[in-house]
Design brief:
six-stranded antiparallel beta sheet
């Protein structure tokens, strides 16, 4: 299964996760522009705790609504530099505090410190805020000190802050929301002719295959919990929890719950099996969706090596849609 692409401009802080698609390895391509990572590069070790504010980060001037669709206006002196990364809270937030292990939607703009040129924005002006994990190193460490509604300005070596642009950068980030780790939509009545689902306390679904279940002639989709968030379109990037089992015997072959982290992927047949895309396009954030795929809409006669999926097997997925971006 392929890893989903990251952002087109690849200013992605390290904390973006990835779901399997149709080739069978569980890893795959990433984006190619300046992408952020939470690991150290050759130039500077990635930070592992929230930097203190300093003269450089305090000097950056930012105006505009926090978490708005329009990028804020940012000004600072060319050649701005910090020997160690600095982070200043430009606007205090009043929402939930973030901690390691949480997930957040973040909009941000990145500038080259030496000449104040803008490298790009994520979530501002176009597209959605980015779904990011909190904690660890690099940008995730900065998020672990933040709260929803806050605007943070960071200055330092790109690799230390978690970006791969090279040189020193200025990052202006708005913490838009905290992302739940399970679907929060309204439960719906389930069709007893389809596999049934009951959630554990943490939200992980338990899938029961009814006796005598019929092999589907077309991919079946059932909304188990109806969310009220944004609607997924073909080509969108989504953060999800998912579990997949074979229809014939209910054997699990893949699960973000088993791995302990949600996953991001691009909802596109170029990245995912057809049945998965069919099941998710048109669904709303906050929903939990049951997808029963035909073998043809799954892996057909060529399942991923080592996946445990038999040839020509219909599959069952339960997907919790947590966020776009």
């Amino acid at each position: 299964m392929k890893r989903s692409r990251l952002l087109p401009i690849a200013l992605v802080p390290a904390v973006v996760l990835g779901l399997a698609a149709c080739s069978g390895t569980g890893s795959g391509g990433a984006s190619s522009s300046p992408s952020a990572t939470s690991s150290a590069s050759a130039s500077a070790a990635a930070i592992t705790s929230c930097p203190d504010p300093g003269k450089a980060s305090d000097s950056v001037r930012v105006s505009g609504a926090v978490a708005g669709k329009t990028a804020p206006k940012v000004s600072f002196a060319k050649g701005l530099s910090a020997s160690e990364p600095q982070a200043t809270v430009a606007v205090k937030g009043s929402g939930a505090s973030l901690k390691s292990g949480d997930y957040a939607q973040v909009s941000y703009s990145v500038y080259q410190a030496k000449d104040a040129s803008k490298l790009g924005s994520v979530g501002f002006d176009t597209g959605n805020p980015q779904a990011l994990s909190v904690g660890g190193s690099g940008f995730g460490a900065i998020l672990a000190c933040a709260r929803v509604g806050e605007r943070v300005v960071a200055v330092g070596q790109s690799s230390a802050i978690g970006f791969n642009t090279g040189g020193e950068v200025v990052v202006v980030a708005d913490i838009v929301s905290k992302i739940p780790t399970k679907a929060t939509g309204t439960p719906q009545e389930q069709d007893p002719a389809l596999p049934t689902v009951q959630d554990k306390a943490d939200g992980e679904p338990e899938i029961t295959i009814p006796s005598g279940v019929k092999t589907p002639t077309k991919t079946e989709v059932e909304v188990l919990k109806q969310g009220d968030g944004q609607t997924i379109a073909d080509g969108d990037t989504a953060l999800v929890q998912y579990k997949g089992v074979t229809l014939n015997d209910g054997k699990e072959f893949d699960s973000s719950w088993s791995k302990g982290v949600p996953t991001t992927f691009t909802v596109s047949e170029g990245q995912l099996i057809k049945g998965f895309v069919t099941g998710l396009v048109g669904q709303k954030v906050g929903s939990q969706v049951l997808i029963v795929t035909t073998a043809t809409d799954a892996y057909g006669a060529n399942p991923p090596e080592g996946s445990g999926i038999p040839a020509n097997a219909p599959l069952v997925f339960v997907v919790d849609i947590l966020a776009l971006g």
